[in-house]
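Good morning,

Both structures are done.
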Amino acid sequence: MFQRPQHLLSRAVASHRVLFIEEPIYQPMEAGLPRMQLRRTAQDVLVATPLLPQGLDEVRADAAQRDLLDALLDGPEGGKDIAIAWYYTPMALSFSGHLQPAVTVYDCMDELSAFRGASPGLRLLERRLMQRADLVFTGGRSLYEAKRGLHPSTHLFASGVDVHHFAPARNGTPEGGEPEDQAGLPHPRLGWFGVIDERMDLGLVGAVAERRPDWTVIMVGPVVKIDPASLPRAANIHWLGGKGHQDLPRYLANWDVGFMPFAINEATRYISPTKTPEYLAAGVPVVSTPVADVVRDYGEAGLAEIASTPDEVVSAAERLMARPRASWLPQADQRLAQISWDSLWARMAGLINQVSSRRSAAGSQTRAMTSSNAAPDV
């Protein structure tokens, strides 16, 4: 998945060396474990994945990751001083809390404690991270309202969009043609791309397909944390699996409606889906269940249809398919122009630089005071 962390930290390489620590992968016990697997992305981000032996409890897993991180930072790919420690999960504090960065950022893109399988210690670690952080960024309006009282420097940075990446979808099938697993599927097409997990209202997906057997429901994305057997099956529902970010415009180019069938539960209470502006950038109209941030940021502006029931989804999709593109694309483009990932990163970097400058000024003042109070040489 190429989402908020990848968009932002790929832009950070313009001014910093970026080391991205992924969550660990557990493997059968073998020689050479634990170890750090390294790869460098096309954007020049160094990605490090801890490979740990199966069977480690949480304490030993944290200790192993701390050792791997220290060895990496002490090696040729590391660096003596860390300018910014940038956190996406408070759980990472359990193996990196000993580091002393110049600036600590918590970019909170989800309420992770509400997710299935969340660690019982996550809330405590988030409180510790909030105490340590210099800046807290939130990935949506609802998250901002939930976190702003917990830290004095909390800032709203809702999902951005890479218009250039998705724009080819507006002009028919981009270079490479329509993907083989989608070619030939009948129209109209309702499409989803993204992770398929407990945040998905699978019952709604099945009910919409049942009400319109002549429509095609296309579901692109990996199935995570739920049993694949729980997916609704019908002749007009097509589960295509995960795809590369670079291939998404080829799929979107031939969708009639972008479908966002989120369940309304604790796991979706604070989400601000990145795919909403991405659908619009591709020229695909959107129908979504009433996720709070989608309603406020797009539904109230007329940039997304909001529907709760299968019948409402069908009616909303029919309205969208009957509406000429020219009637809504200019308004969508005006909105998209305000939320590019480039502009979001520039504003974030500005806040980080302010913290760094204050720290430098305070350090210089302290050194000056220490020098002036020193005893004269004899």
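Second structure follows.
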Amino acid sequence: MRPPPRPGRKTGGFSLGILTLCLVAAGCLQSQGVSLYIPHSAINATVQEDILLSVDYYCHGVPTIEWKYTSNWGEQKIVEWKPGTQVNISESHKDRVCTFDNGSIQLFSVGVRDSGYYVITVTEHLGSSQFGSIVLHVSEIRYEDLHFVAVFIALLAAVAAVLISLIWVCNRCAYKFQRKRRHKLKESTTEEIELQNVEC
């Protein structure tokens, strides 16, 4: 005759099975996630500069990367691509954008209208996604600032010219003073020699 089954063993095996299943599911969810790293969330630039919007991501498989631009003038898609495939660039940014496999993009010759929020979305093939944003502020080169710099440089040049002139004048005065002193010393020496000759 078989002994009656112990209820504790079945319950323990069932709990262990559920715990294992939960751990495997958590591992799968974690491995399917997307992580995104943005080293600089704000960038300041001047007109005509080339700007790198630098990011880096990690996920399993080949994701879809999309950049959008939001400003006072509205929102528009800049570029969308999968690393290793053809890049779809919007008409507004043709010949102005360069893409990189790590998700970064470079903007060439930025203007004031390029100021705003740049949002990147990295979407994995299973549907999970991650997004981040970079704020770009583009300022004009002000001619008042250039005027101030030019005036400051001119002032420095004038001060340098005055100092050089003073040094030259001081040098000439010292040279003349030494010359006169040598001349007087020579005259006094000559007089002493003449006196010695007379006394002899």
